[in-house]
Design a protein that fits this description.
Low-confidence stretches: none
Helix content: 40-55%
Distance between the termini: 43 Å
Number of strands: 10
Strand content: 5-15%
Mean pLDDT: 77
Number of helices: 12
Length: 402
């Protein structure tokens, strides 16, 4: 959530979120309401937009007989990105080898004109094409200088290759037809479930797809620069081994401090009127104005308040009506004009404040037993930044000595 604050430009996030927004995005299996509610809250808090998707309805399937389908993959874009690219859309593509189908995010394509001619290495594996090119080059008679002859023959060869590519490219790496056949099988399975015949047919088509993908791989290798491939492979390995923990550190032998039995029993004792009164008298009613007056009327409210403390000690819950909070807006500048110029401060009610005081007072008496010698946080008269200040002073001292 905090990462989006680092970006002032349009941004988006995309991938497998492993959940759906509502029940309509799932077929087969149960819809997890809690997961869906959490995902919707994330979208609201991150202030992102789930733009409509065309193409495939679902992006994942478990390929089982009972059939389970869901839209787990999507792009979520920032409002500023949507304002910059109003014609943006995401498209779901048919599943192939993976259980997930690819999705793409794009805008209206710009017309860059005709693409320059470039031969793919995969085409050179076609014996029929190579024989035809050699035949045309040998039979072509051109008059003129050697450079003119060569240029003319190459132009003729290019025309023959382009004409062949239009009619035969599907046989040397174009997977569109195979993917369409897979999509039809998946559609049948989504409607009627998986059968042995459909499974067998899909496996056969996948075998064809693997062969076509190998040819396409050769084309992509040619279109990518060797330096870019090396950098990409090196980055993948570096990122992988940076995050892999080959051995987990053991903490069994560390001297972990523990509370004694008497200290543990003290923390679990029932609340007494004396410690509640100590916590109450330590609260200054003038610091956070609101529902108060407990000190002046303690004799009247004491019994009811102690019943509240007993209930909390038993089940650890507080009725939400007793935890109402006032929000005060503190100006950040001399002349505040917008909500950004104020700092919100929560003024908790007396019930919550007294309860927190009682718990803090109990913890204060035993906390030294579990705090290390070098720990600064949660220690009276120390601050959490003390350790950093000492470290900076040591570094500064040794730098001066050099």
């Amino acid at each position: 959530m905090g990462a989006k604050l680092l970006f002032s430009m349009p941004w988006c996030i995309g991938g497998d979120f492993n959940t759906v927004i509502n029940a309509s995005e799932r077929r087969g299996g149960e819809f997890n309401k809690w997961s869906g509610r959490a995902f919707n809250n994330f979208i609201l808090q991150a202030k992102v937009v789930d733009i409509p998707m065309q193409g495939a309805v679902f992006t994942w399937s478990n390929n089982r007989v009972e059939g389970s389908w869901a839209r787990l993959d999507r792009f979520l874009v920032s409002p500023i990105m949507l304002s910059w690219f109003p014609n943006m859309m995401q498209t779901g593509h048919p599943r192939t080898i993976s259980d997930h189908g690819a999705i793409t995010l794009c805008v209206l394509k710009a017309d860059w004109g005709p693409r320059p001619f470039r031969i793919d290495i995969a085409w050179l594996k076609d014996k029929e094409l190579m024989a035809e090119v050699k035949k045309n080059l040998a039979e072509r008679k051109v008059r003129g200088s050697s450079s003119c002859t060569l240029q003319t023959k190459l132009r003729v060869a290019k025309s023959n290759i382009k004409r062949w590519a239009v009619s035969r490219v599907k046989d040397v790496g174009n997977t569109k037809e195979i993917e369409d056949r897979l999509a039809k099988i998946d559609s049948q399975a989504a409607r009627n479930g998986w059968s042995d015949l459909l499974r067998k047919e899909r496996l056969g088509i996948l075998s064809e797809l693997w062969k076509a993908l190998r040819l396409e791989e050769q084309c992509w290798k040619q279109r990518s620069k060797p330096e870019e491939i090396q950098i990409g492979v090196a980055y993948v390995f570096e990122d992988h081994y940076r995050n892999v923990l080959w051995s987990r550190p053991k903490i069994r032998s560390l001297p972990v401090k523990k509370l004694s039995r008497s200290e543990s029993e003290y923390l679990e004792e029932k609340f007494s009127k004396e410690e509640v009164w100590v916590a109450l008298t330590s609260c200054d009613g003038n610091k956070a104005l609101g529902p108060d007056g407990f000190k002046e009327n303690w004799s009247v409210i004491c019994d009811d308040f102690m019943l509240f403390m007993e209930d909390f000690h038993r089940d650890g819950s507080i009725v939400k009506e007793l935890n109402k909070t006032f929000i005060a807006l503190i100006p950040k500048c001399v002349k505040p004009m917008t909500m950004k110029d104020f700092r919100p401060i929560s003024l908790v009610g007396s019930f919550y404040k007294i309860l927190a005081k009682v718990l803090a007072n109990r913890m204060r008496k035993v906390i030294n037993s579990v705090i290390g010698e070098t720990q600064m946080a949660f220690v009276k008269s120390h601050q959490i930044l003390d350790s950093f200040v000492v470290a900076e002073e040591i570094i500064h001292h040794w730098r001066k000595r050099k």
